[in-house]
């Protein structure tokens, strides 16, 4: 797969304070035009002065998607906000540039807020520092503890303090603030009032405690990241869950309840996808486990300071699932 420079893309006409400088991975040819069309043409798009790093889109009467540009050269992450009659829920928090807490309060009118993480990767969890407590699956607590450091953003800058991947004002990082991490088991349900219930659904593989969240009223699965599994340190107490096999097994449990899911909102890329994408993903995982050498592409990547061979298998009508031999089981 060829790595393309930013200059090869048609720029998105947007007024965010951030500006992409370069990519460190190929841009998905489906994701890019979707984002461009949405960001330039959506009638619900709104940028609030309180946070010039975020674009807010309303997809349902009580469901908002918050777009932010990636700060580390990878795919742009989504943040989700769901409003009940009594409480609101924020799913993931992005990189933490700009006042996310203030933005959410402005949208909700100051509702009590439950903050949850799909997983502890920096593009989904560095905004946690703006809040007092965050929920995640119990197998993800250790990972989230590891990013609780004042140096969490250092890798975004070079030795001279310049932004490496995306231009933004370092002063706009809210900065380090200790917060409480609450680990919960699979199936935990959060009641937001008025019939709005959100269930945590364990979906490991990309991370040991990666979880999706099911909005039962809107029949939306906020699925987090599920298009690659690279494994983790064998010393991790839950390393067996950071595998293709663990993802396959958990996905089978979710698909068994597919009648409760109409739409899938992933952590990156196109939203409002039909739930058939889960079936297509499962078929791909089965193919990978049956014959992992039979991939559609291979590339080398540095992960954890070590060079790894990454394999990619196409997901029907979607993206690629990426894995390495060490992460199969």
Description:
The strands form five sheets. Strands 10-11-12-13-15-16 form a six-stranded mixed β-sheet, with helices on one face. A five-stranded mixed β-sheet has the order 2-3-4-5-6, with no helix packed on it. With 329 residues, it is of the alpha+beta class. The radius of gyration is 19 Å and the shape is globular. The chain contains six helices and 19 strands. Helices cover 17% and strands 27% of the residues.
CATH superfamily: Ribonuclease Z/Hydroxyacylglutathione hydrolase-like
Average pLDDT works out at 94
- So, CATH architecture? 4-Layer Sandwich
Strand composition percent: 25-35%
Q: Profile the largest sheet.
A: 6 strands, mixed
Named CATH topology: Metallo-beta-lactamase, Chain A
User: Helix segment count?
Assistant: 6
Based on CA atoms alone, the radius of gyration comes out at: 19 Å
- The CATH top-level class label: Alpha Beta
* Number of structural domains: 1
The residue fraction in helices comes out at 10-25%
Ranges with pLDDT <50 over ≥5 residues? none
User: Order of strands in the sheet with the most strands?
Assistant: 10-11-12-13-15-16
């Amino acid at each position: 797969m060829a790595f393309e420079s930013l200059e090869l893309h048609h720029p998105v006409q947007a007024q965010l304070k951030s500006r992409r400088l370069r990519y460190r991975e190929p841009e998905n040819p489906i994701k890019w035009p979707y984002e461009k069309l949405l960001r330039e043409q959506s009638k619900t798009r709104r940028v609030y002065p309180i946070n010039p790093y975020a674009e807010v889109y309303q997809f349902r009467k009580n469901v908002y998607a918050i777009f932010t540009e990636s700060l580390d050269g990878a795919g742009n992450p989504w943040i989700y906000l769901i409003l009940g009659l009594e409480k609101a829920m924020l799913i993931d928090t992005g990189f933490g540039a700009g006042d996310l807490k203030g933005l959410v309060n402005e949208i909700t009118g100051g509702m009590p807020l439950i903050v949850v993480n799909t997983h502890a990767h920096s593009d989904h969890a560095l905004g946690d520092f703006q809040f007092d407590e965050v929920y995640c699956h119990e197998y993800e607590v250790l990972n989230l503890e590891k990013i609780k450091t004042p140096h969490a953003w250092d890798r975004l800058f070079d030795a001279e303090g310049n932004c490496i991947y995306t231009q933004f004002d370092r002063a706009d990082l809210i900065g380090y603030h200790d917060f409480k991490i609450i680990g919960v088991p699979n199936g935990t349900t959060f009641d937001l009032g008025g019939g709005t219930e959100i269930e945590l659904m364990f979906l490991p593989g990309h991370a040991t405690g990666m979880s999706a969240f099911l909005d039962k009223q809107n029949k939306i699965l906020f699925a987090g990241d599920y298009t690659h599994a690279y494994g983790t340190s064998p010393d991790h107490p839950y390393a067996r869950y950071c595998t293709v096999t663990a993802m396959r097994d958990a996905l089978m449990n979710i698909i068994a309840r597919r009648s409760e899911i109409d739409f899938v909102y992933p952590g990156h890329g196109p939203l409002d996808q039909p739930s058939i994408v889960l079936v297509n993903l499962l078929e791909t995982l089965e193919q990978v486990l049956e014959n992992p050498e039979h991939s559609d592409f291979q590339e080398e990547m540095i992960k954890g300071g070590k060079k790894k061979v990454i394999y990619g298998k196409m997901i029907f009508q979607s993206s690629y699932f990426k894995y390495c031999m060490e992460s199969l089981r």
